[in-house]
């Protein structure tokens, strides 16, 4: 399946179209997670020094990862909020050091102020786990010509896992994502990716229902991102208490997502994902690399 994402300004690997600059790829691209936080649930503290973050980025890039998602604030259940200036201090040096590299830079932030600073420093894409609910976030993305990932979360990270409740989780989450996409596009955001938000205010049954219903979401007009990497649902399914041990379960979930038409999978073990997705693509005879994706070594 071929996916497209439109930017309002030139970005690495994008081709010019009448609507802007388009990134086009086939199969699921890998978004490598680069958390520069002390407290992320799986990789907290690992990339605190700039050099460690750049070494990790280089390794992912070398393995064929085409999008890096740089995060300066943990969103794990119960995480303490971080002031904008502190989040900027964490992400800006990494963005500046990587800007100009042949890779798309996404910034994982809930704050318009952080998004604005990150985009000025050279980021290309905003990943907002609050789904662009803040009109200021929509304005910042529109002004910078940056597409955004619109994610669903019930509640906020402090309380979201207390008692998640839905009458019909699939209808509610998909309806919310479509409404937020309309809102973002009408505010001038050039394009959106949609993400049902695995683990964000959801029980195991809610997560499984959303993953099973993925073909309904991927049949829509917007590319879909799935981020199940090392999340607790894998422990609940397969009894794996340590987050760092959950890569096999992550791969199973993300290969399922790719088969269901997901455009991007967000992963800690990014190199292993590139390899597994290439093998899966060969089995399903999807052409591996096309157009812009070929130049970027885009993952099938
Ligand atoms: N999950 C996390 C963070 N950001 N963004 C999107 N679009 N989708 C996700 O599923 C998602 C996300 C949580 O994972 P991680 O970054 O590893 O942990 P932490 O939030 O503790 O930094």
Task: Compute the number of strand runs.
Answer: 11
Helix and strand sequence: EEEEHEHEHEHEHEHHEHHEHH
Cofactors and ligands: 6-hydroxymethylpterin-diphosphate
Give the helix tally: 11
Shape, principal axes of CA atoms: globular
Low-pLDDT runs: 288-300
Helical content band? 40-55%
Rg, Å, rounded: 17 Å
Largest sheet: 8 strands, parallel
Q: Give the end-to-end Cα distance, rounded to a whole number of Å.
A: 9 Å
Strand content: 15-25%
Average pLDDT: 92
Strand order of the largest sheet: 9-8-7-6-5-4-11-10
Structural category: alpha/beta
Search tags:
11 strands; 8-stranded parallel sheet; disordered C terminus; 3-stranded antiparallel sheet; binds 6-hydroxymethylpterin-diphosphate; 300 residues; 17% strand; alpha/beta; single chain
Note down, in words, how this protein is organized.
The protein is globular and about 40 Å long. It starts with a strand and ends with a helix. It has an eight-stranded parallel β-sheet with strand order 9-8-7-6-5-4-11-10. The chain has a three-stranded antiparallel β-sheet with strand order 1-3-2. Strand 6, helix 3 (112-121) and strand 7 form a beta-alpha-beta unit. The longest helix is centred in the middle third of the chain and has 18 residues, at 169-186. With 300 residues, the protein is of the alpha/beta class. It is 40% helix and 17% strand. The protein contains eleven helices and eleven strands. It binds 6-hydroxymethylpterin-diphosphate (HH2). 6-hydroxymethylpterin-diphosphate binds next to strand 4 and strand 8.
